[in-house]
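hi support,

uploading two proteins for the ticket. first:
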Amino acid sequence: MAERTPFRGKHERSAPYGTLALTVSYNGAAFAGFARQPQQETVQGALEVALSTLFRREVDIAVAGRTDSGVHALGQVVSIDLVSDEEPDLRALLRSLGGLCSPDIAVTQIRRAVPGFSARFDARAREYRYRVVSGPAAPVFLAPYAWWVKRPLDLEAMRQAAEILVGEHDFASFCVADSAIGKPTRRNVTRIEVTSTCEFGEQVVMVRIEGNAFLHSMVRVIVGSLVDVGTGRKPIAWMAEVLAARERAVAGPTAPAHGLTLWRVDYPDDAWL
């Protein structure tokens, strides 16, 4: 059998002793976002403390999709590089992480990836889902995971406005303005679906967005703008004007963080051993 060469993604780095990829779920309400911050409870901080305890060394993780404070995740992926003498039992590692992590974090899967794999740079696509509950009655069970909009929503109008955003565009209007200074803002959104479904007996509008990568708060600004169309505050054609303007002030509001979930991250099939 031919020896496998180190995986080379967009980042051109190598981890000759192998890499582990962890699929992580969490309730974002408990954390000040994913990224490590001094004096703040974060997902990265909690995971790195648990992993450092188990590996008995300092562990740094790479991640696909650094979520903001209050944003949830179902299928986020992080990666860690192994050192020469480490051959962890993945089942035991999964059980141990379950005991060490906060109850608001669950590591649901651990896979061996080819050396040099990066959860961040080798991701091909990310999917986010946003829940909106509309109508005069506030949600009960979905309240921690959905934005309550009191006015009714025209889903067909939202779908037509969403179609304008599908494809490769400059999404400068749909991100935190300061985060885009001096950085490329073109992204490829491959799908936006607006559907009505029922969860825990409550009716919810689900906005599903897939793309190669996303800018800071991009999904939440897209949803806020779609809701402006759905409530009749803005016409469908306005979405094209927002896209062309490339100015954050032209777009709709940033939807609340608690309605957003990072659903899954896709990778090439040959990333796994």
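and the second one:
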Amino acid sequence: MAQFKAVTLSTGTTHQARKRFGQNFLHDQQVIDRIIREVAPTSHDHLLEIGPGQGALTKQLAGSGARLDCVELDRDLAEHLRHQYRDYDNVHIHQHDILKFDLNDLELSDKRIRIIGNLPYNISTPVLFHLLQYFEKIEDMTFMLQLEVVERMSANVGDKNYGRLSLMLQYFCQAEKLFDVPPQAFTPQPKVNSAIVRLTPHKILPITAKDTDCLKLVVRTAFNQRRKTLKNSLKTLISDSELDNLEIDMRLRPEKLGLADYVKISDAISEQTKEK
């Protein structure tokens, strides 16, 4: 990561991007304004900003009048935000690791929460899977992510980017790429291109697995050995004869099966487990 001049925070301390936190701070005002237009926050919203950093988006989110919870891991930046927004009754700063943060700890009303974030690229996929646990409480999610991750989210059967992330996100959400963001929009500049994506959880799941945890296990097991055929990658979970009964070609590789196929396999395993 390239170095850049340390900035002085509102608390009087200096701060420089920390590699261990994957920090790349958005500074391009045009990109910031476009993200805010896409989110279009109102005073009726409950917003959660993940990794606000130095607050590029925070000011406009807070100014909307919405309840705004910010989760920031960096202690110095969290203190900076607390100091900066100490007079805002609608802003609440949480110095916490989002991967260990329980959304149920927020003061949730009957409103679904809207999530915004410039996710550190080194933990973006784990963060997405963590948030999917709460999909029924979420209205939408707008994220800055590595372009490659966004392409994986929306990949279809047979695509080179199609995999575990594609399947599980599409089970819970609709993914829409909004626009690309160049490295020059950040300080320091990342070595990859970025994109803004909107995830909208399904109000009614288009297809429902009998056991979501089992579905996650099947998909993870299959794609952990994606170069192998289903017969080999899933042999610890389901027998050849049971796959034959499902009329699924065991010679196929994992990327050749759609979501409905994985739900069918998962449901068969769930039923088999109940009978034991």
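thanks. also noticed: The chain has two domains: 7-201, 212-275.
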